[in-house]
Model the fold of this input.
Amino acid sequence: MLLQALCSHRPVGTAPPPRGVHTELPLRKLNHHTDMAKAMILAAGQGTRVRPLTKQTPKPMVPILGKPVMEYIIEHLARYGVKEIIVNVAFNHWKIENYFGDGHRWGVKIGYAYEGARENGEIVPKPMGSAGGMRRIQDFSGFFDDTTIVLCGDAIIDLDIHAALFEHRTKKAIASVVTLEVPKDQVQSYGIVVAGKNQQVTSFQEKPTPEEAKSQLASTGIYIFEPSVIDLIPPGREFDIGSQLFPMLVDKGLPFFAQTRHFNWIDIGRVSDYWSVCQRVLRGEIAQMDMPGTEVRPGVWVGLNTRIDWDAVHITGPVYIGSGACIEAGVTIEGPTWIGHGCRVREGSTVIRSVLFEYTRLSQGGVFKEVVASPQYVVDRHGATTYQGDETTSLRWGDARA
Done:
């Protein structure tokens, strides 16, 4: 569908900085009216393309450096003074709600809108679509009474929000879509926005071939809306922002503009994306995402209460080893690698450019190369998954708590 699932594309953006160097533009001092904005984070999807990572975990809760992806979004919004945030939820919604609560830990206010229905006597998740969910919230409480920035809950960004709001208001737009220019040979991976000379949106192309593409502006799934836009969404039905609302705005000739900005947009639309993002983050290429723990050797960080036979292991950074982890003698670890808390890497095993979720136990002498591993499954960088009990694999692993 046209521009649907806009949050599910691989990362594009500017060249990454060294670890600890922040590249986002300085926060601008704007007047009170320009500074005001609310936010909505879209977090009701199933994240089917990232399974098995999302089999029991909402996609916005998938961890990077031990923190849910959505936490980075909330921190970024708070940094720009966006303090009122509504999150639409559905699948495994309590995991998001229990973690983020009312938002006070981040200095913001967070509210939730559950999307579901009663079927055969049970409450089941039933997302309303990205736009339909907004109309439902508006009909319930009138929350969208100011400019609202809408973001997907599964992408890390360092967008200059003040600059985006300033351009939106300067153009007197009722809707804006933030875009990034992508190489011609990559347009088939994105929803492409076609705009006139003044950047007013004229049409869209969903994953066109390079020959068909009328533009190289890829939608990032970041939007800015005025309250009047919400009134255009039909109530009580599923409705999508990209495939339905945006064409409606174009057909009506309303002031709907594209913004072309330069920033990092890092999405985890697929398992391969997640593995790549973790590699970039561990290498220190993403601003404001610093390694936790204590650096005990160059490029090697550890948490508390670890047991590591330093004289009998070979560890090449960047590597993080979480609290309560045990690294036995004869182990080789090559970075970028993340070993979550409570993991146990048995004697003689090898871990190369991988992510181990918490409480994963690797067997003696096993070689785990370019994988994401949990106590239940191992998935390689291309998305091929092996589950516990599969006799076709030579890998042996399990739960470190057992």
Summary: The chain has two domains: 32-268, 291-399.
